[in-house]
Batch of 2 targets.
Target 1
Amino acid sequence: MLNLPTCWSCQYSFKWIQLLFMTGTKQCPSCGAKQYNTSRKKRKIVWIGPALATLMLVLLNIFHISLMNVLLLGLLLLLIALVISPFTYEFTDKNEGVF
Ligand SMILES: [Zn+2]
């Protein structure tokens, strides 16, 4: 089940579009509290890039598809990751850092 994150302070439900291009922290439009992504989720996001690159290399070797198609596929995967990324966020009041 995909759920959009809520404000840790006032339980305001963020809209998908508000989180689409979020980097670092976000301010709650309702109560003004700063939102930090939990480190657990951040770690997951950090791994998306290398995981995608590995997947693309594996596909290239197994199916012998052209580099152009692999790049297109990679672009598509990145787009999908971007679209679903707001659903992976979870906010706290503490900046926990990535590691
Ligand atoms: Zn709030």
Note: The mean pLDDT is 82.
Target 2
Amino acid sequence: MTKTLTRKLAAVPALALLGIAAVLALLVASPGDFSDAASHRDAPLITEDPTADNTDVYAFVSREPGRQDYVTLIANYIPLEEPGEGPNYYHFSDSALYNIKVDTNGDAKPDLTYQFDFTTKIGDVTPNTFLYNTGKIGLPPNPADPASKYTNLNQPTSYKLKEIKGNGKGQTLLSNARVAPINIGPKSTGTQAEYEALAEAATHNAGNIKVFAGPRDEGFYVDLMGAFDLINVRDPGVDTTSGFNVHTIALEVPKSRFQAAGDTDGVIGVWASADRPSLKVDDDDDDDDGGKKMTQVSRIGNPLVNEVLIPLAFKDKYNATQPRKDGQNIRDYIVNPGNSQGGAALIPILNGLTGCTPTNDRTDLELILLKGIPNGVLPGFAGNQDTQNRGGPVAADVLRLNYNIAPGADANKLGLLGGDTSGFPNGRRVGDDVTDIDLKAAAGAVLHVLGAINCPASLTLGDNVNDNDVPYLGEFPYLATPHNGYNHDHDHSSLSSPMVAAGVGGLGLLLAAGLVAPRAVSAIRRKESED
Ligand SMILES: [Ca+2]
Ligand SMILES: [Ca+2]
Ligand SMILES: [Ca+2]
Ligand SMILES: [Ca+2]
């Protein structure tokens, strides 16, 4: 792969490549049908700005023993970050704001925003070197003080963390808090255990909230290389993100804090974003006429929506708009992709593979991705709340978590589709195989198990990459130790293990029955009878 292509690939949010591949396939097949989108098939705007590019967001009840009263929220940035990219390693941008947002009352407006504002000092030990560190990086002298600096670190990054309420009032939770350094190599950061000790010193306590910021292993595993080659599925697939890192912000927040911010039913909606100052140079003097007004340049909720369901022509606008507008802006792309986008959209493409995927009237996807699962559908959902994971009336692409569900003892990577109510789309855990879940669901798996359609091929879809390249942590911040810049590879040799067959458990059947509720079933049957 050429450097240019690698960089483009690195800049595109993971699953976007599936969508691009689909579009390319159509361009090859019938160029005349897609002339408008052809002008948009270059990387969307945010791919020019990887440090502000959201890759994934996670929300789940903490799985660490004794932490069941807490929810872990994680947002990752910088797609396919090369661990050895020195001497000026990737770091959080000083001019961006990084946000994890929580809606407690279902109106798709944030009631709690956790906002990270980073500052990197270049040449903090000495400006008279080209190096990131001037010796082996050591633990801060006063680890209990978040502002105490690592030793020999010549480009330290720190941050201010604010918690902003729905009314706009904020409080500062941390100031000058250190970010974990890059895992450079044995001379700079020692053994893996020594590096992880450095990283652990970047987990801070802000009252009863735990906070971490720094590099981590990219926890999202997927065969982008196969997908990008015109959906060239292989078995086993190749974990394209193997050996790459991301930059992570993570919080562990007590459930009581959501309740204090207005949650009454145990359901929260979570999304992450990045903001940049909007710049405007409008006269010919040398003054900077740009204001300090911040503009959202990236966001993510569910791990499918902008990447594969939103057409290229709308992707930049998606990143700039707010979830509360999703009902009017993007619902039609999700529910009626055949009508709104035509044959080049993912779901019609999947129909080309299965021969049985409905391309319109996808109320099943509307419930999973935009509205949440309504009350009474799943007996496995615990608590006395009046919803399952439906947070409220406003359709929005946010990750909905019912935190009354305790973590499952044997987590199924297929989440709800595998009968595990503590996994995606009830929140999302770091190891959930969202590529397989999303592809199956988009192809009609939920409708199939209900019996609304006969589409067994939908159950077989997946990228045949079934696990991360390195083990996740069993404790906060859960994502694995970042790959070492000096000694890492992307050779994918760990992926020779045979594919694990994906099953749909009994609870999955119940889910399907509820999801497709009478409205969706009748809509699909009506469509079929018209055909
Ligand atoms: Ca709200
Ligand atoms: Ca990984
Ligand atoms: Ca709620
Ligand atoms: Ca997979």
Note: Confidence is low (pLDDT under 50) at residues 1-43, 494-531.
